[in-house]
Amino acid sequence: MPDSSDVASTAPAPASALDRCRLWWSRRRGHRTPSPDGGGDTGTGTARRAAARTGNGRDTALWRLRTTVPERPGALAVLCTSLARRRIDILALQTHPLGAATVDEFLLRAPAGVESGELSALAATGGGHDTWVERADAHDLVDGPTRTLALATRTALDTAELPLALRELLGRCTIRSLPAASVHGTPTAQRVPPGGILEDTVLRLPDPAGGTIVVERPHLPFTPTEFARARALVALDARLGQRVPRRRDVLTLPEGNAITVRRADPSDLEAARAMHTRCSDTTLGLRYHGPVHDADRYLAHLLSPRFGRTLAVETASGRLVALGHLLWDGDETEVALLVEDAWQRRGIGSELLRRLVELAVEARCESVYAVTRAANTGMVAAMRGLGLPLDYQIEEGTMVLSAPLAPAVSAAASEGR
Q: How far is Cα 85 from Cα 107, in angstroms, rounded to an integer?
């Protein structure tokens, strides 16, 4: 499990909210807008065309459009009129005041023939510039206050939700939680002031769990309004402290032994270290892909809710015998398993992996991947047992297995989960 230690240099925080607005605006004017041909969609396919039927039976599609207009009376009306000429409905609007200008963010329903280039042209005709367009989907139909309250509720219930809530709050972006020190004890991040730092397309926020939360959105600068929302969500997390759902599921293995599956947290550190001592060097090597004596160093990171979710398996006597990790890795999501030798080949790994994938679907992850040795037949069998299409990549004995989750995420969304 490599540690994340590459952090871009930080700049001094602006002195006031007005200074932050001016700084953002000066950088925004120099920002190059992506080509309309790309539609603003730099992700890996999560933004999907959402087709609907209008009253007259024509196909439509949902879009997000963000553009900057002068802050003067009637400027918004001119922009809306330009869109209306093409029979484009405005379903929602958010404004981000910047003093001399305002960034307007629209959720639009447009006729199916309208593409991103035409939307950009319509915005320009209406007085907008620095326009960004991307496809939207049904999730975007939830109004802003309702979405914000839902994100706050998720964050309040589970520490691990903060990175996911920030990503949903700020749109397509990459979020990394950088610990204050690496697994080897060396500092990995410069200290961030309590109010955080806004740097054009990068937000740096102090992590309540220690270290720094870095949010990057290269294709679109953050506004001071978005910065304030992100800081409020982080402040909520800090106020509530560490919290992990305490649900416990008791299962019976084929031979009759009862085990308990639950969420793990940093309080399980000593029990996890004890499990390491009972694991063979082969088992630890297959899990950590490096020197066996380094395995204990990764546990504090792995058990932190900030970097993902961990499931623990314990026996009826309370002994920890297996761990399953779902790890946020920038835009990707990794799954990893460790089962104590004496408890292998009893279906525990497959059960953990199935539950980890369910958590990934709840978090709307596009895919999951596992890194293991090509000789690890147990992990390969567990991944195949998911019943999902798998992509195999093998290099010098190391295997990466990837499984797409988009159909499962869509099904969960349609069921309102």
A: 17
Distance from C-alpha of 356 to C-alpha of 54, rounded to nearest angstrom:
39
User: What element of type H or E holds 404?
Assistant: strand 398-404
Residue 88 near residue 109, CB atoms below 8 Å:
yes
As given in the structure block, the two tokens for residue 403 are: 């499984």
Residues 209/193, Cβ–Cβ less than 8 Å:
no
Q: Which of 166, 160, 132, 150 is nearest to 47 (CA)?
A: 132
Report d(CA 161, CA 363) in Å as an integer. 9
pLDDT tens digit sequence for 371-391: 988 888 888 899 999 989 999
> What's the token pair of residue 71?
């802050």
- Name the phi and psi angles at 63, rounded to 5: -140, 150
> Quick one: tokens of 301?
């990171």
Mind listing the pLDDT tens digit for each residue in 11-48? Answer: 333 334 344 333 433 444 444 444 433 344 333 333 33
Tell me, what's the pLDDT at 323? Answer: 96
Q: How far, in Å, CA of 166 to CA of 148, rounded?
A: 10
Map residue 210 onto helix, strand or coil.
Answer: coil
Domains and CATH numbers, the chain: 49-136 (3.30.70.260), 143-240 (no CATH), 248-414 (3.40.630.30)
pTM over 0.70: no
> What's residue 185's pLDDT?
61
pLDDT at 252 over 50: yes
